[in-house]
Amino acid sequence: MVESERSSFENENENENENENETEVIKTVFVCFFSYKRYQLLMSSEKQAEEAIVVSGEGEDDVAGRKMEDSTADDAAGDGFSMKSFLWHGGSAWDAWFSCASNQVAQVLLTLPYSFSQLGMLSGILLQIFYGIMGSWTAYLISVLYVEYRARMEKQEAKSFKNHVIQWFEVLDGLLGPYWKAAGLAFNCTFLLFGSVIQLIACASNIYYINDRLDKRTWTYIFGACCATTVFIPSFHNYRIWSFLGLGMTTYTAWYLTIASFLHGQAEGVTHSGPTKLVLYFTGATNILYTFGGHAVTVEVMHAMWKPRKFKSIYLMATLYVFTLTLPSASAVYWAFGDQLLNHSNAFSLLPKTRFRDAAVILMLIHQFITFGFACTPLYFVWEKAIGMHHTRSIFRRAIVRLPVVVPIWFLAIIFPFFGPINSAVGALLVSFTVYIIPALAHMLTYRTASARRNAAEKPPFFISSWAGVYVINAFVVVWVLVLGFGFGGWASMTNFIRQIDTFGLFAKCYQCKPPHPLPSPVTGDHHRR
């Protein structure tokens, strides 16, 4: 009896020990499981933070700065839908695409048929494709240098970008030193200055085809005042809805030019003799160089993105879409009017007045207002930094200090109202260096050492096997643009530009306007006696 009780007791103890062991095992499994999950969560959060800082190119200060901006909006915040943020605050890859495509083809759409008349149909098409690809390559180089600059600055923790918009000359300064900064600042600001001038001239030229009761110089005064309102747009973050609308307006205009030209048919006695002179050929070529060199604002657009590294292929995608607008429209208008375009740099001037043409003119006017803001905004930033107002959060204070930037633009548009020829001059003398030669040289010098190439934030693209291939392409870009763009193009465009000054004079009241109808000759006394 005693033995059975003892055996029973021992069995109970064994069962209890087994239960305790099972409990310990279960506890250990649960602890391990939750520890693993916690580790995964921690690694995930660290990875997201790293992506926010390194991959996106945004430092902690930038993220905080952007959140601070969002918090000032009335309905911004959280995960809820905010109409104000949806229309006003952009930073996605799509926003950048719309910005690039909208900014790349504005008033130049109306001057490309004029360039085709100088180049001929075949050269016009081939040069558009060639310079479109070359422009996309140098835009890629600029984006790589921006990422490299941000990566180095973030690593050194020597720079805070809170409420600070990085610009191209600052990238050059950080990577190559003060002399490159000076060169970038001089060429970039001068190009953007004349880019804004061209938009203002285009506004006056276009509106004249709807209302010719006022001359083009008077219209320049009016639109100068209208375009001055762009001082109220803080940065490229805030061009979201404008970029979308601008590209839609340009798309309508391009296809209007194409369809209207085919419906009009070829003009009576039309001839297509281009190219006839070297000066005209290189003038047309530099206008196309200018067309696909609109990435002087690349750094500012990238800085407005939430993930700037996604920009690498965006400019190429924008260029491919632009081809669908420029190639059909320029070809169709040149096919219809031929050599008449040599004396009509604005394609609207040869198309009959209809409600569709008036709609295209109005839409282009709005788009040129948007493009004026695109070209002027980097100038506003430079001016704000120069006078110490760049970090001011008040929109109205910044708008007031920006106004002096508009005055010289207004004045230059009145002095040189040569719509068309001024594009070629700017393309040859400024665009050639700003967006082709300087980015290619800067990229070559930034990665000239083995250590720089080894530690590069961005490696060569997948379609180029080595750094040597990148250097070959960059060297080709520099030589080509320096010789043909700046050299021959500069000679041709300045020859044509001086010819316009000799023909129409500075401060021309109405450039390429229709001559006034001659007044009937007065009746002489002899005639009266008859």
From TrEMBL:
<protein>
    <recommendedName>
        <fullName>Amino acid transporter transmembrane domain-containing protein</fullName>
    </recommendedName>
</protein>
<feature type="domain" description="Amino acid transporter transmembrane">
    <location>
        <begin position="89"/>
        <end position="483"/>
    </location>
</feature>
<feature type="transmembrane region" description="Helical">
    <location>
        <begin position="278"/>
        <end position="302"/>
    </location>
</feature>
<keyword id="KW-0472">Membrane</keyword>
<feature type="transmembrane region" description="Helical">
    <location>
        <begin position="314"/>
        <end position="337"/>
    </location>
</feature>
<dbReference type="InterPro" id="IPR013057">
    <property type="entry name" value="AA_transpt_TM"/>
</dbReference>
<dbReference type="GO" id="GO:0048829">
    <property type="term" value="P:root cap development"/>
</dbReference>
<feature type="transmembrane region" description="Helical">
    <location>
        <begin position="185"/>
        <end position="207"/>
    </location>
</feature>
<dbReference type="GO" id="GO:0010328">
    <property type="term" value="F:auxin influx transmembrane transporter activity"/>
</dbReference>
<dbReference type="GO" id="GO:0016020">
    <property type="term" value="C:membrane"/>
</dbReference>
<feature type="compositionally biased region" description="Acidic residues">
    <location>
        <begin position="11"/>
        <end position="21"/>
    </location>
</feature>
<dbReference type="GO" id="GO:0006865">
    <property type="term" value="P:amino acid transport"/>
</dbReference>
<feature type="transmembrane region" description="Helical">
    <location>
        <begin position="244"/>
        <end position="263"/>
    </location>
</feature>
<feature type="region of interest" description="Disordered">
    <location>
        <begin position="1"/>
        <end position="21"/>
    </location>
</feature>
<feature type="transmembrane region" description="Helical">
    <location>
        <begin position="219"/>
        <end position="237"/>
    </location>
</feature>
<keyword id="KW-0812">Transmembrane</keyword>
<feature type="transmembrane region" description="Helical">
    <location>
        <begin position="125"/>
        <end position="147"/>
    </location>
</feature>
<feature type="transmembrane region" description="Helical">
    <location>
        <begin position="359"/>
        <end position="383"/>
    </location>
</feature>
<feature type="transmembrane region" description="Helical">
    <location>
        <begin position="468"/>
        <end position="491"/>
    </location>
</feature>
<keyword id="KW-0029">Amino-acid transport</keyword>
<feature type="transmembrane region" description="Helical">
    <location>
        <begin position="395"/>
        <end position="419"/>
    </location>
</feature>
<dbReference type="Pfam" id="PF01490">
    <property type="entry name" value="Aa_trans"/>
</dbReference>
<keyword id="KW-0813">Transport</keyword>
<feature type="transmembrane region" description="Helical">
    <location>
        <begin position="425"/>
        <end position="447"/>
    </location>
</feature>
<dbReference type="GO" id="GO:0010262">
    <property type="term" value="P:somatic embryogenesis"/>
</dbReference>
<keyword id="KW-1133">Transmembrane helix</keyword>
